[in-house]
Amino acid sequence: MRCSSWEAFCYVGIMHTEMDEITIYVMDRIGGYLYVCGIILASYAGYSDYSWIAIFISGGIITLGYVFQRAPQLYAMSRDAGLKALTLPLCRLLVSYLLLSGVFYVIGVGINSLFN
Questions:
Q1: I want to staple 58 with a disulfide (CB 3.0 to 4.6 A). Which of 1, 8, 42, 87 is the partner?
Q2: Residue 17 and residue 10: Cα distance in Å, rounded?
Q3: pTM, full prediction
Q4: Whole-angstrom distance, CA of residue 60 vs CA of residue 42
C-alpha cells in the first residue's frame, strides 16, 4: 500500500498527538547517537584491521538509529498496512547503510595505511 506525501504528513500529525514531545525528542537524540556510533565503529574497525563483519554490525546500528528517529512514522505505517509492508523498505535501507558503513571502513583502512 503506497501513501501520498499528504497521507505521510497526516501520519506524523496523528503520531504527535499519541506521543508526547519529550519522547519524540529523546528518540531523535538516540537515533543521532546511533548514527554516530555506527560511523565511528566502521571507521575504527577499518583503521584497526578488524574483520569486514564490522561493516554489517555498523550498518545494523545505523539502521537502528533510523528506526529510532522514524519510530512514529513506522508505527503508523505498521498499524495501517501491517509489518509486512515495512520489511522491504527496511531491508533496502539496511543495504544502503551497509554501503555507507563500507565506505567508512575503507576510509579507515586508507588512514591506517597512510600512517603505518
A1: 42
A2: 11
A3: 0.78
A4: 11
- pLDDT tens digits for 32-59? 999 999 999 999 999 999 999 999 999 9
Please tell me the distance from the alpha carbon of residue 78 to that of residue 80, in angstroms, as a whole number: 5
- Rounded Cα–Cα distance for residues 27 and 41 (Å): 21
pLDDT in tens, 10-19: 455 545 546 6
Burial class (CB in 10 A: 0-12, 13-18, 19+), 40: middle
